[in-house]
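Give me the fold.
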Amino acid sequence: MLAIQRRRRIVEELRATGSVTVASLSDVFQVSEETIRRDLIKLESDGLLVKTYGGAYIKEGMHREVSFPVRSSAQVAEKERIARRCAEMVSDGDTLFLDGSTTALHLAQHLNGKRNLVVITHALQIALALAEFAGIEVITLGGRIRRSSLTGLGPHAEAAVSQYYADLVFFSCEGLHREHGITDSNESEAEMRRRMIERSREAVLIVDATKFDRTSFSLITGFAAVTRVVTDSTVSEEWNRFFSDSGTELVCSDGT
């Protein structure tokens, strides 16, 4: 198969599924992973996708969903900066909700050394990471496992949230827009985040800069419910004014 044909097929797969991994494409086309990476670099330069270390995703459509392996390899340095800043907000003895975002997973990995924490989550990867840390009690919310995100969702998980209250919830989203609010591509994920926010004293939105000025499929909440927004870099003056007017604290992990 010619490279141009392979790249056309890659774009078709992205438009059908939202994201791909280098390993899976290598198997499908029977070429090396390095060849696939060169294909993705070329397609990214053409503006057809966003490349990550382990794969790629496409930005088209409000209902676009990106798989956990692809999300895990995107904006890693930025998520690490956000996670370290958020870990400073957690005190010994706190009870936390953590959503199923990859940024929340980075945060979980920075909680080692905290004492007497209770962390409530519907994310398998977060529960497994925290289970290794002394001083942290982990409560999982059950539900039907969604393979693309490795989270428990559905009526059982949603009902379980209502059994608890937390000091803080750390949650992410697919997009935030000054008019449309905070949104996600999946209705069930949005519902879990909304319920966690309702049961928490403070809600902290954790988002890298790529999420700003975007709208996805399902509303999570408006900005009035959010106490703080933690991001990886400075934001526009319009967003600064917006957060100031709405009473939401903006925290930039680069220190500005």
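Residues 76-252 form a domain with the Rossmann fold fold (CATH 3.40.50.10470).
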